[in-house]
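$ fold --in a.seq
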Amino acid sequence: MKKNIIIVAAAAAILLSGCASKKELQSCRDENKALTSNLQTTKEDLAAKNARIAALEEQVKGQQKAMDEQKYSYAKLQEALDKSLTNASQNNVSIDKLVDQINESNQYIRHLVEVKSKSDSLNMVLTNNLTRSLSKEELKEVDVQVLKGVVYISLADNMLYKSGSYEINDRAAETLSKIAKIITDYKDYDVLIEGNTDNVPISKPNIRNNWDLSCLRASSVVQALQTKYGVDPKRLTAGGRGEYNPLQPNDTELGKQRNRRTQIIITPKLDEFMELIGEAPETK
C-alpha cells in the first residue's frame, strides 16, 4: 500500500512539473537511434561470424574425410603386407628380407602421410589468410572452401564481369589483387581458372555460345592475374565448362545466379606427388 502511495505521489509530481522538455526528448530519441544502429551492426557481425563458423565446420568435415581415406589406404597396405608375410612363411622366404620390405613400406607410408598433412596444413593457412584479407562485403560474393585437398575460390559473375560480357569490372580489381597476393605468396601451387555459366543461350558477334563465354571469362581473369598483378603465367591455366557444371538447377533465378561463377582452383603441384608414387616400394 505504501509503495502504491509513493508511485501516485511520483506521478503527481511529474504531472505538476509538466512533461519532459523537448531537449530531453530529443536526447532520448538520439540515444535510441544510436542503440538501434549498434544493435543492427552487432546482428550483422554475428551473422558474418556464424557464416565463418559454418565454413570452418565444412572444412573440418573435409579434413576428417581425408583422414578416413588415409586410414583406409593404410589398412589396404597393411593387408598387403600381412599377405606378403603369409606367403613368405609358406615359401620359406628369408625373415630378414621380409622385415626390410615391411620397414621400407612403413617408411613410405609415413612419408606419404607427412606430405599429405603438410599439404592440408598449407591449404588451411592459405584459406584463412585469404578470408581474413577479404572484407565483409567481398565475402558475400566470394566463396572460399577446401575440398579433397584443393582450395576453391568461387567468384560471382556480377561481381567480376559486365553483364553478358567477359570484360572485368573495375570494382573487381581490389578483390583480384588480394587473391593474386595469396597466389604469389604460395609459389608451390598451380592455379586453374574455370569459367561456368547458366543454361541461358547467348549469341553475340564474338561469342557464339556459353562454351565461348565461359572460356573467354576464364582467360580474362588469367590475363589480369598475369599482366596487372604479376602472377607467373607458367602457373596459370584457363578453362571453361559452359553450362555443364551447375551447382543448382537452372529453373530459378537464384539457381542461375549460383551457376554463373568463375572458380580459381589452387592445387599442389601434381608432379611432386607423381614422383612420390613412382618411389613406392615394390610388393612381391
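$ fold --in b.seq
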Amino acid sequence: MDKDYYRILGVDKKASKDDVKKAFHKLAHKYHPDKQGGDAAKFKEISEAYSVLGDEKKRAEYDSYGRVFSGGGGDSGAGFDFSGFSGNFADFGVDLGDIFGNVFTGGGFGGTRTPRGRDISVDIEVSFREAIFGARRNLMLAKQAVCDTCTGSGAKPGTSMETCSRCNGSGKVRDSKSSILGTFTMVQTCSACHGNGKIPKEKCSTCRGEGVLRRQESVDIMIPPGIENGEMIRLSGGGEAVKGGVSGDLYIKVHVATDPLFRKEGQNLLRDLQIKLSDALLGTTYKVKTLDGDVDVSIPPGASHGEIIRLKGKGVPSGKSKRGDLLLRIVISLPSKLSKSAKGLIEKLREEGI
C-alpha cells in the first residue's frame, strides 16, 4: 500500500465505521486550514484517508488490493458549497460532500446552535447550623435579564413582529469564505433577528428592541441540609439571558462558617464534653448543648478520658426522617493545683490502689 490510511487516522484495522468517523472528525477539527494552527496538507491527507475508510466498498477494495477502484460522488453537505474543492481532490476519488456534511452539520464550523447566556458564579457564607439543617437565602444579582415590558420579544407592547429582511425569515444567513482549498459557504445565525426570523415592527422602549437588559434581579436559593464547605449549587436558567436563546446557569459556591463547639464528620456531629475528675469517677448528669437545644446527659461512673457518648438522632439530617448522631467525646479536666485536704484524699485513694 502506498499510504497507510489506518495510520493516518490513528485507528486499528479492525476499527468500526463509527470509530473511523470519530477519529476523522477529531483530526478534521484540529487541522482544518481555517483554524489557528491548522495544516492544509495534513487536512488533505486525513480527508483522503476518511474518503476510503469511511466507505465500506472502498475500504474493502483498499484492504484487499491496496488501492481503490470505485470513484467518488454524492451531494454536498448541509449548509456548505464544496464546488471549489473538486479539482483539488479529483485524483483521490474523495467524496467531499459526505465528509464535510458529517463534520460541519449541527454545531461544527458551520452548524447553527441556539444562543445561550453567560453562566454566573457567586460565593455565599452560611452558618454551621444553616449548613446542617438547610436554609433559604435571597440574593440580589446584577445581570442580563429578560425584559419585563416585552417579555423578551423586543417589541413594543401591542405591536406586531415582521419578517427579518436580512435573512428573509429563515433565521440563518450564508457566508461564503475562501481558503487555499477552495470556497465554502457557512450557515450562521442571523445577527439581526438572533435566529428568530422576525424583528419588532416597533421596538420596546425599555430594552430598545434587545429583549434583554441589565438590571438587579432577586433570586431565592435553597441551601440543602448537610451541605459541605466548598460545595456548589447549580440553579439552571439562573444566569444571564440572551435574546432568542436560553439563559445560562447560576452557580453558588457555599462557604460554611466554623462552629466553636461542633464538628461535622459525615452524617454525625462531634463535640468535646469537659467534665471534672470527680464526676468521671463517681458519675453524674450534665446539661449539654446540642443544635436542637439543651439535653441532660448521664455520665457513667468510671468514665474515661476520650470515651464517646452517643446521642442518637442529634446529628446531620439524611433524607426525610433519618438523622445522624451527636458524638460527645469526654475530656476530663485535671486541676492544676490541689488543696491540702484534696491532696490528702488523693493520697488515700493511692493507698487503696485507685
